[in-house]
Amino acid sequence: MSTTAPQRIVLKFGTGILTKLNAPEPDPVQLRKLVEAVALLKRAGHSVVVVSSGAVASGLKPLDLTERPTDMTTLQALAAVGQTHLMHAYENLLRDYDLHVAQLLVTHEDLENYDRARRVKTTLERLLEFPQVVPVINENDSVAIEELRFGDNDKLSSRVARLWSADLLILLTSAPGLLRDMSKPEEGPIPVVDDVDVVIHHAQEEKTKLGTGGMISKLRAVQDAVNGGVQCIIASGRHAEQLPEVVAGGGVCTRFLVKR
Ligand SMILES: Nc1ncnc2c1ncn2[C@@H]1O[C@H](COP(=O)(O)OP(=O)(O)O)[C@@H](O)[C@H]1O
Ligand SMILES: N[C@@H](CCC(=O)OP(=O)(O)O)C(=O)O
């Protein structure tokens, strides 16, 4: 697809691109670039919903922790502290573009329940009638029941994209797209994928230190989204400046087509 017509776009920001490369804490430079890209897309007439990770990572420093813990209770406590820091950062950065953040925290159960999911959808649609609002969605980590958690935000973003009938879901991550061979990044990502099943074997278990999902989780989320009619893109969140080009059909990324 090569178009600049207004689209409904879900942007997913993974933990791996919201944090510094060499320290387990949020990277304000990265966050600024991502917010700038959101503002650019909105200015071009697109409707944008952000699914943002980063609550747990944002809670580490305030709680004097240097590493991501593994026990669920501490992770939930970290998310409770970190989510407010994250939203504060978004609100501050969006102000430069006369935009405001709208926080939506949802659980797996909310989106599985017909009535609650519909309420999320209508709230989202009402919010988007205000051009100055950027909805930022995260899992409600501190109350999510362990066995029913999304855990990573890949699946959450595909659920949101389907619920909202988005045109496009862009998973922004630390990789430039889906690589055939992770030891040969110079080959660049696979440009276009028609069938996720055919490429899933390229995804390795390896992932960033603070991220939870990894590439396998992303491809499963992509499959869910394309099955629901949403075209998907995996692209580097470290090159947010290329987002308008990616939305228009170009850029360095992997594009997953919807089967017709
Ligand atoms: N075939 C592949 N191509 C690109 N990245 C891959 C591949 N297989 C595994 N990965 C890993 O997936 C990571 C992205 O997932 P993750 O760390 O969970 O990021 P995020 O926090 O953005 O969700 C990459 O940094 C890379 O280590
Ligand atoms: N909801 C969690 C997201 C967990 C996470 O790291 O997800 P991801 O970056 O998609 O691998 C948070 O905000 O920390």
Automatic annotation (TrEMBL):
Binding site for ATP: 12, 212-218
Major localisation: cytoplasm
KW Cell membrane (keyword) present: no
Keyword line: Amino-acid biosynthesis, ATP-binding, Cytoplasm, Kinase, Nucleotide-binding, Proline biosynthesis, Transferase
Domain spans labelled Aspartate/glutamate/uridylate kinase: 7-236
Keyword ATP-binding carried by entry: yes
Entry-linked Pfam families: AA_kinase (PF00696)
Record-level Gene Ontology MF annotations: ATP binding; glutamate 5-kinase activity
Compartment(s): Cytoplasm
Entries under PANTHER family matching the protein: GLUTAMATE 5-KINASE (PTHR43654), ISOPENTENYL PHOSPHATE KINASE (PTHR43654:SF1)
The name this protein goes by in its record: Glutamate 5-kinase
Organism the protein comes from: Prosthecobacter fusiformis
